[in-house]
Specification:
Layout: E1 2-5, H1 6-19, E2 29-36, E3 39-46, E4 49-55, E5 58-60, H2 67-72, E6 78-79, E7 84-92, E8 101-105, E9 108-112, E10 118-123, H3 137-148, E11 154-164, E12 167-169, E13 174-175, E14 178-180, E15 186-187, H4 195-215, H5 224-247, H6 252-264, H7 268-279, E16 302-303, E17 310-311, H8 312-315, E18 321-325, H9 331-339, E19 347-351, E20 362-363, E21 366-367, H10 386-402, E22 412-415
Helix pairs in contact: 4-5, 7-10
Length: about 425
């Protein structure tokens, strides 16, 4: 799990787009779209005036208030907001008067830190007078003083925004030649920092499929699997964020549930379950395969022949897909090189031989002798010692589900 500052991540992604020759046009407002049998006509207003273009496929990644979603006629059912929240980066005249961590009062919740100058607030009093108006220093100061009861003044404010716990999800991710990804397809409370990971995997899932269709390698029916694979994942995220929101409410019933959750956080199995739920590492797609290992995490394992031992993680350090060829004569590796030639997916074959499989690969503590498929594709990240991971995850779960520890900033985005 990687905690990343949103502004820093946007700069990195922008630089990568520029290096790939992608033109990013800012300050544009989409004004209309029309679908045809062979493409989509799009109109927008740029800083230079009205413009238009035609494309074979259109992907709407334009956020929770997506114009593409509305114009293409996607249904967007869900729950209305019940809580109104703020996050801001600011300076206070007396920061020592505001307690660190999470402070709950009858008026709401203030989360101060862990990052310097950052705070978030849950306001139980209802919506602001004008939800579309810019957030002002005076508004933030008033809400902060009312909720916390602290005698503080906001002397400077770098950024601030409002958000709610509204949870909505499109009925489908595809309508003919228009597709949606990220917040355009789903919105939810930012509690738990799951939004960016959800949107990034949407894009990764759709990207290779759309590339295969455009090249003519696959029929456009492949794009239907985008909805069937990604929508259930979004449903699960909406469910767990709604549960987290319920735990923040000020009523006695929610308070009792919070106390129970605080005790549950002391159980390793509970933390493991919540880690998988909120990190996305437990996500598995229904591939229609009988092998129950497909889609599971392997962990790091030695691979290769005795004379040239290496590890799975070392082989994957370059970020490429890996094919572990367990066939006796290495024919699967040769076949993969032929099949994948010229495709968007980069796949590197590592022949290990059938005789080396039984003692080398396990998953979840379960030996998979005789059950390992001919090829295994996995994605991994470098991690610290398991005891450090467990300890940190327990702290994050406590903050996320019971507010017994310092909360995580909404502007810090966790990507897995």
């Amino acid at each position: 799990m990687l905690w990343v500052n949103q502004q820093g991540l946007e700069a990195i992604l922008g630089a990568r787009a520029a290096a790939l020759g992608i033109e990013v046009r800012r300050g544009c407002e989409v004004t209309g779209l029309e679908q045809h049998d062979d493409g989509v006509a799009l109109r927008w207003i740029s800083p230079d005036g009205p413009e238009h273009a035609r494309c074979a496929w259109l992907v709407g990644c334009d956020g929770g208030r997506s114009s593409i979603r509305k114009m293409a006629g996607f249904a967007f059912p869900g729950t209305p907001p019940s809580q109104f929240m703020y996050q801001a980066v600011l300076d206070l005249d007396h920061p020592e008067r505001l307690p660190r961590g999470s402070t709950r009062t009858p008026e709401g919740v203030v989360m101060n830190g862990p990052r310097p100058r950052w705070l978030a607030m849950h306001d139980y009093s209802g919506p602001p007078a004008d939800r579309n108006a810019p957030v002002t220093r005076e508004e933030i100061e008033g809400v902060l003083r009312r909720i916390s009861g602290a005698d503080v003044r906001v002397t400077a404010m770098e950024q601030a925004n409002r958000f709610t716990d509204s949870a909505r999800l499109v009925d489908t991710y595809r309508r003919d030649r228009v597709l949606l990804a990220g917040d355009a397809a789903h919105i939810h409370s930012p509690l738990g920092g799951q939004g960016l990971s959800l949107g990034l995997v949407d894009a990764a899932n759709l990207g290779w499929k759309l590339a295969a269709v455009i090249r003519g390698d696959k029929p456009d029916s492949l794009l239907d699997s985008y909805t069937s694979e990604r929508r259930p994942v979004a449903e699960a995220v909406l469910a767990n964020t709604l549960a987290q929101v319920a735990l923040t409410r000020p009523d006695p019933q929610s308070s009792a549930v919070r106390q129970i959750f605080a005790k549950l956080m002391e159980i390793d199995a509970v933390n493991d379950h919540l880690d998988g739920l909120t990190s996305g590492l437990a996500t598995r797609y229904d591939l229609g395969a009988e092998r129950d290992l497909v889609g599971r995490l392997t962990g790091d394992r030695p691979v290769g022949r005795a004379a040239a031992r290496t590890s799975l993680f070392a082989e994957m350090a370059e970020g490429e897909g890996i094919l572990l060829d367990a066939s006796p004569d290495g024919h699967a590796a040769a076949l993969a090189g032929t099949v994948m030639l010229g495709r968007a997916v980069v796949l590197r074959a590592v022949a290990i031989g059938a005789a080396n499989v039984a003692d080398d690969v396990t998953t979840g503590g379960q030996n998979v002798t005789g059950r390992l498929p001919v090829s295994v594709v996995a994605a991994v990240a470098s991690l610290p010692h398991p005891s450090q991971i467990r300890r940190r995850n327990a702290q994050l779960n406590a903050a996320r589900w019971s507010e017994t520890a310092e909360a995580s900033p909404a502007s810090e985005i966790r990507a897995t």
